[in-house]
Amino acid sequence: MSEEPQSLRTLWQAAEGKRRQIESSWDTNSAAHQALVNAAVSSYEQCLRLQDQIALFSPNESSDDIATNDLHHLLTQYHLANLVQRLSSEDRKALLRRAQDSYEKFLRQLDLYDLLSPSDLKLLEQYREDPAVFSTASTSDPAARRERKILRFKQEKDLKQKLQHLEQNPAALQNDDDMHRRLKLTQIDFCVHQTFQSLESLAQELHILSRAPPPPPPGQQQGLSDIRERHKSDDGYSEKLDGPMSAGLSGPMLSKDGKPLRPFTLLNTRQTMQAGVFRPDHSLPTMTIDEYLEEEKRRGGMIEGGGAQSGIQPEVDEDDLDKADEETMKARAWDEYVEHNPKGAGNTLNRG
């Protein structure tokens, strides 16, 4: 089993090269990227078919019976599931189900060879109980969920550091079969860790998609546009509001002679942004104190009078007899009140 056919090795190397090119690409929505993903998926599927034809793995064997150079083929289903998630399709649910199935086959094969740790076996049992609500952490206890997330993060960090340490000396890996085998097994452990996180994400996405409204049947969108067209009159008038950029408002704004070809609005956006560059971070006053007082007087928010001037008695005009009589009667009334109410007359409880 250690002698790998050249055709399988060639297919694996081609598939790995495409996968690395996909992972280093950033334009994931382009047609060329999707074509590359489809080609990589096809290459990994051919690897799986060849593995079945030559019986590369057998359930009657243990992990010790697998040659070191054949261990990386256990990751075929994992890479296939990861690539399927990158495909674009209108039926997103079918892609997610397909990726979920590949992840399950990957874990099932590792379980047959006893390559799963006790914690991973426990997670696998939880997943098999109910894949739709699978989670790597508790969903009822926030504190336990946080601790579980921290533990999973530390495990992932340790696996990355271990992989980095083993990959630092490629020459030693060629001469030391034990170190090479540890590297392969560490890669498998890391992929298992990522698989459970992916299964949790797939379960959440499938739950969201299950609540999404069904897509409209074919031809319904065209029918809606036909209704809008029928509401238009012969001269093109319609009661529907046009969008911000309708067909009649497209094209150049000015002609070669400088004449406007369509309506436009002048905005001072550039000047406003330029004025706001060098300014304090607090609001500046918009009027002086005198202007504010004048505005308050106009609005009736200020009462005049009071202060020292309020104690100055106005002089009585001697020629105004009516005013003089009024002041005389007022003084007499005050004198009578003082005579009838001497000082201290109202102090009945605390007389000195």
Question: Can you walk me through this structure?
Answer:
This protein has about 350 residues and is mainly alpha-helical. It has a domain at about 5-210: TAP42-like family (Serine Threonine Protein Phosphatase 5, Tetratricopeptide repeat). It is about 55% helix and about 0% strand. Helix 2 (about 30-55) packs antiparallel against helix 3. The longest helix is centred in the middle third of the chain and has 34 residues, at about 175-210. The chain is elongated and about 135 Å long.
Report the CATH topology name of the domain at 6-210: Serine Threonine Protein Phosphatase 5, Tetratricopeptide repeat
According to CATH, what is the class of the domain at 6-210?
Mainly Alpha
Number of strands: 0
Uncertain parts? 1-5
The CATH architecture classification of the domain at 6-210 is Alpha Horseshoe
Sheet having the most strands: none
- Rg to the nearest angstrom? 44 Å
Q: What is the helix tally?
A: 12
Helix content: 55-70%
According to CATH, the homologous superfamily of the domain at 6-210 is TAP42-like family
Helical/strand content category: mainly alpha
Which H/E pattern describes the elements? HHHHHHHHHHHH
Distance from N terminus to C terminus (CA atoms, Å) equals 125 Å
Give the overall silhouette.
Answer: elongated
How much of the residues is beta strand, in percent? under 5%
- Average pLDDT, all residues: 81
